[in-house]
Amino acid sequence: MSNREIEADFPRRLIDAKETAALLGCGVRTLYSLADRGRVPFGHKLGALRRWDSAELQAFIAGGCVMPTKRGKGATRCGRD
């Protein structure tokens, strides 16, 4: 599935940590920890708030939960080593 197809299927929308954690199946504190370690998308800072792009998260999930910058031996799946 190409990025254009994903963008067409999922409108761009920023969601909060609670909704993001529910989408990824983890707790809010775990989400922040994984994001800070680069295992899930970091999100976008809006002042003191952090929001995640729903289309970016859907692409992350569709891609097998592997961060695109890590390839090969060091890649992690859905925040697990």
Describe, in plain words, how this protein is organized in 3D:
By secondary structure, the chain is an alpha+beta fold. The chain has helices at residues 3-9, 17-24, 28-36, 54-62; strands at 14-15, 44-46, 49-53. The protein has one domain. The chain is built from four helices and three strands. The chain has a three-stranded antiparallel sheet. Helix 2 packs across helix 3. The radius of gyration is 12 Å and the shape is globular.
Task: Throw out a few tags for this protein.
alpha+beta; three-stranded antiparallel beta sheet; about 80 residues; globular
- The string of secondary-structure elements, in order, is HEHHEEH
Total domain count: 1
Oligomer: single chain
Low-confidence stretches: none
Biggest β-sheet strands, sense, barrel: 3 strands, antiparallel
Give the averaged pLDDT, no decimals: 80
How helical, in percent, are the residues?
40-55%
Q: Name the strands of the widest sheet in spatial order.
A: 1-3-2
- Strand tally, please? 3
Distance between the termini: 26 Å
Q: What's the gyration radius in Å?
A: 12 Å
Per-chain topology:
Layout: H1 3-9, E1 14-15, H2 17-24, H3 28-36, E2 44-46, E3 49-53, H4 54-62
Antiparallel strand pairs: 1-3, 2-3
Helix pairs in contact: 2-3
